[in-house]
Amino acid sequence: MTVVENQEVTDCGCFLSVWLWFNKLMKKLMFKVVDTANSAKKLGKEDPRRIVHSLKVGFAITLVSLFYYFEPKFHYEGFGVSAMWAVLTVVVVFEFTVGATLGRAINRGIATFLGAAVAGGVHRLACFSGSSTLEPIVLGIFLFSIAAIVTYLRFLPKLKARYDYGVLIFILTFSLVSVSGYHDKQVLEIAHTRLSTILIGCATAFVVCIFICPVWAGEELHNKISSNLEKLGSFLEVFGTEYLNTACGTASEQKASDLQGYKSVLNSKSTEEVLANFAKWEPRHGKFRYRHPWAQYLEIGGIARDCAYRIHALNAYLNSETQNIGQEVRTRIQEPCMKVSTECGHVLKELASAMKTMTYPLTITVHIDNAKLAAENLKSLLQTNSSWEEMNFSDIIPIATVASLLIDIVSYTIKMVESFDQLATLARFKKTNRFAPVRARTGSWKRKRVMPEQSTENVHHHVTAAE
């Protein structure tokens, strides 16, 4: 083979290698594009409000940009490049919920005003020096001092929770106006134009967010807490049968979903706190009044998480080696454990339903009494030594652990009922005609059923027994 032929073969081999590499790269790129498109489609199906939110942001940016494009002949005229601050404000301020958008808008508006005002005052003080040499030194000292002090204040927990964004914007506005004002000698004009454009952007974002398919943070928090309670209740209703009944067989798909739903409650603290913080900014809407007790939702959510941790420990026994314990051992604790689990499940699901409808539960006292009675029976059974003398110690430990966890769940369920009572009172939940609330000394609320044939003595006896 000649040199020319060898060169041609080499060129063909190089070209083929490059082609194969390019083809592989394109296939990989197409796979990523298709995968991203499928993920985006799935995301939109899970919550169509995300699509609506994206359209709202695009509409708000387009709307505020019209001021810059057409330059109308009114107060906005002459802003020039500063008009882009309105567009930037919409991009930064517009959030998914109304509370988040309003909170950011108020923070940004007030912080911009204060930052510009302080910068104007500092510039005026620097001008009193009467020297072109001392003026930048005075400005530098004020700039360093104020920026350092305000940055340190961002570490305060209460300030950081609701006003961290506003403090950050204050530092930014003060710094920009101070630096630009020193050269332009037009501090007031700069502060005025910047504040005006930012207010236009904040107003546009808020109007679009609240009047076009609004998403309320308070309603999101309300629904999330009620959903968490329902998930815990569903697990407890299924647990007794799945763990204690050896003849139950394979769990159905619905039961498997109920047994895994509680896991989302374990890591819900940060989401609940953020929603509660945003909800405090929102005006009255729907059934949620001004100064709605959002902190009470956090209290219920905290108790629900404590209960979820016990449920997580219970879940470990579903597929553990304790499933091999004999039928005799299971029979001894089957009835009280199933009673505790199912009754607590009924209580939590009824609380979830009552929270969704913002009404008082109807039959919750009966389930609480049954759960307390079953828990007492379970304690008595565990404390009876004659029941466990003939058993192996290794068999007693798992049973005692399950029983102890169920007893703890009863106490946390009662705490949730008491906390829900406070929420219902503060939020003025609707009371039904058939049942009237009766408050016990412990702080938890009880109910008496108003029936013509029921005497006052029987009602008093029922409430005393419940206490």
Description:
Residues 446-467 are annotated as: Disordered. Keywords: Ion channel, Ion transport, Membrane, Transmembrane, Transmembrane helix, Transport. It holds the Pfam family ALMT. It comes from Datura stramonium. Residues 73-78, 246-250 and 433-467 have low confidence and may be disordered. It contains 16 helices and two strands. α4 (98-127) crosses α6 (157-184) and α8 packs across α9 (253-260). It is mainly alpha-helical. The N and C termini lie far apart (104 Å).
Strand order of the largest sheet: 1-2
Beta-strand share of residues:
under 5%
For the biggest sheet, the summary is: 2 strands, antiparallel
**Termini separation:** 104 Å
* Spans where pLDDT lies below 50 across 5 or more residues: 73-78, 246-250, 433-467
Order of helices and strands: HHHHHHHHHHHHHHHEEH
**Share of residues in helices:** over 70%
- Tally of DSSP β-strands: 2
Cα-based radius of gyration, to the nearest Å: 33 Å
Query: So how many helices?
Result: 16
- The shape is extended
InterPro entries: ALMT (IPR020966)
Main location: membrane
Pfam families: ALMT
Family: Belongs to the aromatic acid exporter (TC 2.A.85) family.
